[in-house]
Design a protein that fits this description.
This protein has about 475 residues and is mostly helical. The protein contains 23 helices and no strands. The termini are far apart.
């Protein structure tokens, strides 16, 4: 192809890039790189669901008396998530957002390799906790970083790409699980002993867990190319690199924006975590915002949707589906999750945060009520699948992305890292309680009553959002802070 002939092609590519990304191409580029923490979060979080029947048979924890042990294998990573979220307050504020993301990427890689090589439950649990620590770091730092580099007109959409990356990781894990499972398929009437002696029981689950090392390696490499957050640099009085980054993101508005950031920083800057802690105790407006963030974080977990991803195999099995259909059904939930997260990206900066949170809470209230009825009265299996997919679609379009956006927007600059860390720590603690209690709840109360309980929680969550949650759409972080703090 001659140079002249290549010109129309290049123009078409550039036009397509402009149509997709708009004038904020650099912000999108570094935002997507930072979102890889979300992709690994989603993969690490869900891959264990597909591997659980196989490694459970391998390690002998699939029996009816092993519910707590099986739940511990699934939920042990959440303890790491809690530790990583707690550590992020010191790391992200002390050494910066970028180095914290790099540490998270390295831990993802180490955890993937170690989990695949595990020869005992103890070693597997330790490896999963390390991966959870990486998730905790990424779940705090990635949305925080993205919100601090994003122009206000696309901040909701750009932060929501973190959730899109999470669901892409979920779908990737589900597809890889299905492919590996189909590599050496098992009959529908297979026993636990048969699974333990099969190729899938011996090696399949190792490939499922170890495949995470490929995107983890990409995250390690790409995290080297993102700049430090300009707002973190301003707090550290590093004005020149902050201005350089803002010029690439905001263009001619960079000087004005950096003056606004500097003004807010000088008004409310906290020199250390002690003064931040004092502000959280003394200042009523700080306490209110922190309470809103904690409740939203806990609600995102206690609405019950994550048990569908972690225990989808058992829910579908209880509805009467054979193992091969269960594995396909799990992939279907991932496709729906990804599709409606893309819808959320288009809606979040148009509809606003508050309306979408209300829609999600009310929608999940209805879905879980119907799902409970389906399980209680032994209604046809396809109806259970419809309820599951409806719940996932509503969650993916509302609570899942919007919660991360709100947590990254609500807090003042002087305490943003600390308050984000506290909120996300509460999120992972709530997730740990949700995950480890689901199987005992199912055994004690029955599946129907358990999902009715989640339905009630969603109704209470809708009331809280209606009364307490402010709207932040279309406002700069400094403008939001001026409205909510001053």
């Amino acid at each position: 192809m001659t140079d002249n002939a290549a010109i129309p092609v290049k123009k078409s590519i550039n036009s397509l890039r402009w149509f997709v990304l708009g004038p904020n191409r650099y912000a999108w580029k570094i935002g997507v790189f930072a979102s890889l923490g979300g992709l690994l979060f989603g993969y690490d979080w869900v891959v264990i669901a597909g591997a659980k029947p196989l490694l459970g048979a391998y390690f002998g924890i699939s029996g009816p008396g092993q519910a707590w042990v099986s739940g511990w294998v699934i939920s042990s990573a959440i303890l790491g998530c809690l530790g990583g979220a707690t550590a992020s307050v010191f790391l992200a504020d002390w050494i910066g957002r970028k180095p914290t993301l790099q540490i998270s990427a390295s831990l993802f890689l180490v955890s993937a390799i170690a989990s695949a090589a595990a020869d005992s439950i103890s070693f597997l649990v330790i490896s999963r906790i390390a991966g959870g620590f990486a998730i905790g770091l990424a779940s705090c730092t990635s949305p925080l970083y993205i919100s601090e580099i994003a122009p206000k007109v696309i901040r909701g959409k750009l932060v929501a790409t973190y959730q899109l990356a999470i669901v892409a990781g979920i779908l990737l894990a589900q597809v890889i699980n299905l492919v590996i499972f189909q590599w050496s398929p098992l009959p529908d009437s297979v026993t636990v002993a048969d699974i333990a002696q099969s190729w899938s029981g011996q090696f399949g689950w190792r490939w499922m867990l170890g495949a995470e090392s490929i995107p983890a390696t990409c995250f390690v490499a790409l995290s080297c190319f993102i700049p430090e957050s300009p707002r973190w640099l301003v707090r550290r009085q590093q004005m020149e690199p902050a201005l350089t980054t803002l010029r690439r993101i905001e263009g001619d508005n960079a000087e004005r924006i950096i003056k606004e950031i500097e003004q807010r920083t000088q008004q409310h800057v906290a020199s250390d975590t002690v003064s931040v802690g004092r502000s959280l105790i003394v200042r009523r407006d700080y306490r209110r915002l922190l309470l809103i963030g904690i409740v939203l974080a806990v609600f995102q977990q206690w609405c019950g949707i994550n048990v569908i991803f972690n225990f989808a195999d058992e829910i579908l099995s209880q509805a009467g589906f054979p193992l091969s259909d269960v594995m396909f059904g799990i992939v279907l939930t991932g496709v729906v999750n990804l599709t409606f997260t893309v819808v959320a990206l288009q809606a979040i900066d148009r509809w606003g945060r508050r309306p979408m949170m209300l829609l999600g809470a009310i929608g999940l209230f209805a879905c879980f009520a119907c799902l409970g009825a389906s399980l209680q009265f032994d209604l046809p299996g396809p109806l259970t699948v419809i309820c599951l997919l409806a719940a996932i679609s509503i969650y993916a379009m509302t609570l899942a992305p919007v919660t991360w956006v709100l947590l990254s927007e609500l807090y003042p600059v002087s305490a943003r890292g600390t308050m984000m860390s506290i909120s996300v720590s509460a999120l992972w603690l709530a997730c740990f309680v949700l995950t480890i209690t689901f199987k005992p709840f199912i055994a004690g109360m029955g599946a129907a009553t358990t999902f009715w309980l989640y339905s009630l929680i969603c109704f209470v969550g809708a009331l809280f959002v209606y009364v307490q949650v402010p709207e932040t759409r279309g406002k700069s972080l400094e403008h939001i802070e001026a409205e909510l703090v001053d």
